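Appendix B, record 7
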Amino acid sequence: MAGFRRFREKYFLQDESDTIYQRLATSGQTPKTLLIGCSDSRVDPAILTGASPGELFVVRNVANLIPPCEPAAVGFHGTSSALEFAVVNLRVENIIILGHRQCGGIRALLRGPGEDSNSFISQWMGIAYEARRHVLKEYPNADEDTQCRFAEMESLKISLKNLGTFPFIQEAISSRQLNIIGIYFDLELGQLWEFDSSSQQFRQLDI
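Structure tokens (predicted):
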């Protein structure tokens, strides 16, 4: 309640006749960027980017994963439907996938499926199984934290690849140069790394 009171004072109880929410309520939302982030409470996209209301269309899920495109009639597709709405209806200009250090979903992926065969997390993290296989093969003797860091980045690559399986994203890239961006946030060091598709490597951004 106290937090909402501060929010209301900032955005609704000002003297100006044309506040940001009056404009958003009248004109609707026109964000230029779709950001897919993790549910982790330490990685809030709006706080990290300093975005104002209406600037980001945000999807958050465990480990910021993008599933491959599947038939709409099979299962439920929360992330996929948000992708479709942002690209087709809102016509965003950018898609950012925001991975991060100390991701609990990736740590669970590396430790392997638990005994509960009905676990939603295990099923969901199967999207990034190839990242687990790659890291355990390439860095078998590394400690768990190091393996997790590599897996966090590898899983981000998988989500970037999966974006390309959606026809409406392919069409937006070819017809209006939709930008696809992979960003890795090191919450331990306060650094951002961007995936370079040409070198298939991450490079630290100079900020």
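Remarks on this record: Residues 144-163 form the longest helix (20 residues). Residues 31-204 form a domain with the Beta-carbonic Anhydrase; Chain A fold (CATH 3.40.1050.10).
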